[in-house]
Amino acid sequence: xxxEHRLIVVSNRLPITAVETTPQFQPSxxxxxxxxxxxxxxxxxxxxxxxGAPYEPKLAELLDEWSSTQPCSFAPVFLTAAERAxxxxxxxxxxxxPLFHGLxxxxxxxxxxxxxxxxxxxxxxxxxxxxxxxxxxIWVHDYHLMMVAQGLRSRGLSNPIAYFQHIPFPSPDIFETxxxxxxxxxxxxxxxxxxxxxxxxxxxxVACLRRCLSQVRVRPMGETLLVRAGEHCAxxxxxxxxxxxxxxxxxxxxxxxxxxSRAIQNQFPDTQIVLGIDRLDYTKGIPERLIAFEKLLIARxxxxxxxxxxxxxxxxxEEIPEYNQLRLRIETLISKINGQYSKPGxxxxxxxxxxxxxxxxxxxxxxxxxxxxxxxxxxxxLVAKEFCASRIDNRGVLVLxxxxxxxxxxxxxxxxxxxxxxxxVARVVDLALSMDESEECTRMKSMRSQIRAHDxxxxxxxxxxxxxxxxxxxxxxxxxxxxxPVPGVSHVRLRRAFAGFQFPAPGPGVEGR
Length: 513
What we know:
This protein has helices spanning 31-36, 57-67, 81-100, 111-131, 148-154, 172-175, 181-188, 199-212, 245-253, 255-267, 286-299, 321-341, 358-367, 382-390, 407-410, 422-433, 437-453, 456-476, 491-497, and strands at 7-13, 16-18, 25-27, 44-50, 73-77, 137-141, 161-164, 193-196, 216-221, 224-229, 232-238, 272-279, 307-314, 349-353, 370-373, 397-401, 415-417. It is α/β, with parallel strands linked by helices. The protein folds into 2 domains: 7-241 and 458-497, Glycogen Phosphorylase B (Rossmann fold), CATH 3.40.50.2000; 245-454, Glycogen Phosphorylase B (Rossmann fold). The longest helix has 21 residues, at 111-131.
């Protein structure tokens, strides 16, 4: 891959999304989009993704108009309501999301979901094939699209294709519960490079290959590992994503943010602010965090009236009943705590359930004394990095879950906690609130230095360079064209088809099935 080669980005969503009730578009939200948008440069040729609505001629026309004003063109994938239900709500968020976050009991292993996932990935591969030229670099993002490279290879495309997973990758004991585990692993090995947020995720991926596939060989290749399973071959490495440090620091120093931060602090006179900002999701550990804050108020009653928790929850996946139940649980807990401990002129928890603008977000970062970032499991968690990048005063304390990917980089200054241990979280928050200015500054400077050196542009450059290295290796070991997976041929169906048939014992070298 040469530097001048065009880049095609593939993600579940385009950076703009159709508004459901009207034929128009609005900017998309979400961590993946926020990370990718600042990276666009002259090499970006096309962005392939879902338009967020079924096909309509008017929408396609409007998208063409919008695309003409952007640095790169947009290639929409239009999914029907039924396709979205099986691919996005069903398999992506009903199977892969909970499984890869270590919660297999929440999974709904429906064959129709798997079929919908494979068919949708074929649609994305079709869209990529239509826009790509020979030697274009194709960069696929996240768990929705793990089968895209296999679809493209089956069409004979030999382009460099890389994959980056923004969420965690589970250990073999968790991953092997997936009925289609081998199909997913083989599809991932059709990419030239498979990138993860942390070394732990990469190790889990390699361990799953060893557990589930036969004839797996692993060889160090500089900063990556070359993994082989039969005729399948790919490089894999860890590339922690960053934030646009300079932009956050610049905005945080501006007059708009400074006045906004002072206004927030004026709303909480003579109190310290403990800040939580999360998208609504059961992986974020919001109920556990609220329980830990209540335990702090119980253990340290003298803090009542002197500390406030501000919990911002951004709406997400509201069409899924489980998320509405989570919202109800959060609001019930907040109501209970406020009812129990409030007194005239002081309410312990201030709760916001809404989207929040970038300026307001940075103003809260600047105003907070403690950022409480305690997901039960997270691929990275950019809130932790954004908080530090915004603290141009080198103040504030980050209390961070050890199960967030960001913990690998920010252990130099963050106070790490196990979010399930709510009593210890309460004690650590108490420690953070009483930390002296000198220690605050030392810890924050260390984290800001790390984040500045490993910002989102460093991540982008590192990943592209690693892809280039992987392509050079692959030229020596070409990937064969592979057939697409056959939707619906699941282990469940095979077992039903051969019910009562006595299978012989597996021979040597048969692993993981």
